[in-house]
Amino acid sequence: MRLSEPFGRRGAHFLSLLGLLLLLTACGRDDTYVKIYDHNLTKTPPKCLRLDPLSTDPHVADTLKKLYPFTAQCPYRLSVTTKEKIRCNSNANAPEKTLSNFPSAFVRLELHRGTRLLYSYYRDLTHEADTDDLESAFTRFEKDCSLRH
Known about the structure:
The chain has a 5-stranded mixed beta sheet with strand order 1-5-4-3-2, with helices on one face. By secondary structure, the chain is α+β, with helices and mostly antiparallel strands. It has 4 helices and 5 strands; from the N terminus they run αββαβαββα. 36% of the residues lie in helices and 23% in strands. Helix 2 packs across helix 4. The N and C termini lie far apart (64 Å). Strand 2, helix 2 and strand 3 form a beta-alpha-beta unit.
């Protein structure tokens, strides 16, 4: 049975265009969200960073320590979170989960001074976070915060 038989010629064209649109929007999106909570951060960037040891696994910590000389006694704390095998149980996302590369992991960077959140970076991933994802996240963080080292 051809697509045009049950829907008619116009309906078949519409469904084809709708499918193409869904494919292009689902596969071509950038799931990176950045929020700068303290806009003075770009004018007076932190002179040092402390890597939060509670939120990083050894692979993440090793990768980031190659990118920046973290110090233990710094008021600016960078917490990094990666998570794999996440899933959304909502039925509202069923079409997107079926028709696209629905995210199954994420990487998040947050910069704090004391208890105050200054910066947040979040990116959905369709694979386990790797070195390239961490380097990309940190490079974006450096650029957004005008970080020098």
